[in-house]
Amino acid sequence: MKARVHVMLKNGVLDPQGEAVRHALGSLGFDGVEGVRQGKVIELDLADGTSEATIGEMCEKLLANTVIESYRVEVL
Fold first, then answer.
1. Span 15-42, mean pLDDT?
2. 63 close to 7: Cβ distance less than 8 angstroms
3. What is the pTM of this model?
4. Which of 21, 36, 69, 75 is 20 to 30 Å apart from 15, CA to CA?
5. Domain holding 11: CATH number?
6. Does the keyword field hold rRNA-binding (predicted)?
7. Within a 13 Å sphere around the CA of 56, how many CA atoms are in the beta-carbon half?
8. CA gap 62, 17 in Å, rounded
């Protein structure tokens, strides 16, 4: 079984990487980009029957810093 975890900074948390990407896009001539939020995608190969609750525990304990990041689990 496969799962995909999408991790993003919470709203209101400064995103310096996103700001650097926004600035670089402007420098390359891509006008109109008013904001960029950068996150990460983690793909997991799991044993069949692994519960979403277990994946949530993985996120809470290691994959996401829940103080400043939110996550969404997608079972494929």
1. 95
2. yes
3. 0.84
4. 75
5. 3.30.1280.10
6. no
7. 3
8. 21
